[in-house]
Amino acid sequence: MDTDLLIVGGGPAGCAAAVMAASVGMRSLLIESGDAVCGALRRIPVLSNVLGVTNGPDLAAAIEAGLARCDLCRVELGSRATLIDAFDDRVEVTVETVAPVGPARGRGARLTAPFVVVATGVGPLDPEGVGWLGGVAGRALPPLWEADPAAIDGRTVLVLGADRPLGTVARAHPGLRTRFVVAYPPEDAYKTEEIRRDSRVELVAVRRLELGPSSAPVSAEVRTVEGERRVLTAGLGFLNLGSAPAPPAGAVAADRSGYCPPASQHPRVFTAGDLRSVRFQRIATAMGSGGEAALGAYYASRGLPTETGELPTETGGPPRDVGGPPDPARGG
Ligand SMILES: Cc1cc2nc3c(=O)[nH]c(=O)nc-3n(C[C@H](O)[C@H](O)[C@H](O)COP(=O)(O)OP(=O)(O)OC[C@H]3O[C@@H](n4cnc5c(N)ncnc54)[C@H](O)[C@@H]3O)c2cc1C
């Protein structure tokens, strides 16, 4: 075995799993495909729902420093997991190097451990796969979270989708005089709560939106949920469609929506963070679930049942010792 616990994904969920594992004496190896941990946090200018911090970069720096202090956690940047296999007695993770930061390794290198925490988060939805949108094939619309505030100040922008980055942009720039025309499908109505009262935002619930050919200004023909036909026009257009889970291939079980709930996994596979569910995509819940996933692996290693399930009896045998009992002085 290469370590006691493999962790795939170095966002808040994976990093929380690593330090929780260490607190109960488990060695872990965290595989992150990017060139730093917590890349997503570094793009969040204002945080109002995480205790102790007010912005993403500060939290990312604190997490990075916490991992650096953790003797039992090893972080490997520039390594992407491409396949996860789960067996009765172990898991195997196939990794590939992402140049230039990744370690020198042959193609198809495999890492082995008794358990794996998978916390690979979500990736942006492909607009061409979104049923209510037309006219987007071959169009390079930028994501809203990348919008330069100076470039949209005083302008009308068409926002395709009501995902959470809209709230982040609005909160981060209360003085911005942008008019956001937001077209969204009815199933995303619950996402509009946090920006509904912002006077800069016009919400248009649509069944169908067909984007016109021009990039700036943009125009779009929509059929609203009330059946009305309207033309929306704006100086610029942005994508804000949301995201989809992106686990490595292999043993990670997904439900019909593509998400990977912890309770559906092989007993040696623990999922955490945004990958679990469309409903709980927040930093605090990601960290909590990462800690729970590591504790789940710890209890399983000692033959104690977890929500994921008991290990197969034929190989369960006496529980493998992964360190001493939890040490209350270290928070275990
Ligand atoms: C613009 C924006 C604003 C947000 N604002 C807030 C907010 O105000 N408050 C809040 O609570 N939440 C906010 N969120 C959500 C928050 O960022 C996520 O809930 C949180 O980052 C999820 O953590 P995670 O560890 O599950 O996933 P992520 O942070 O996405 O981390 C997953 C990691 O896995 C890595 N990875 C992916 N695939 C592989 C692979 N195959 N092999 C190795 N590594 C891999 C990725 O590089 C990434 O580093 C915001 C998100 C965005 C995009």
TrEMBL record:
Domain named FAD/NAD(P)-binding: residues: 4-129
Region ranges (Disordered): 304-332
Ranges annotated as biased composition (Low complexity): 304-324
Catalytic activity reported: [thioredoxin]-dithiol + NADP(+) = [thioredoxin]-disulfide + NADPH + H(+)
InterPro entries in the record: FAD/NAD-bd_sf (IPR036188), FAD/NAD-binding_dom (IPR023753), Ferredoxin-NADP_redctase_2 (IPR050097)
A molecular-function term among this protein's GO annotations: thioredoxin-disulfide reductase (NADPH) activity
Gene3D superfamilies (alphabetical): FAD/NAD(P)-binding domain
Entry keywords, A to Z: Flavoprotein, Oxidoreductase
Name of this chain's protein: Fumarate reductase/succinate dehydrogenase flavoprotein domain protein
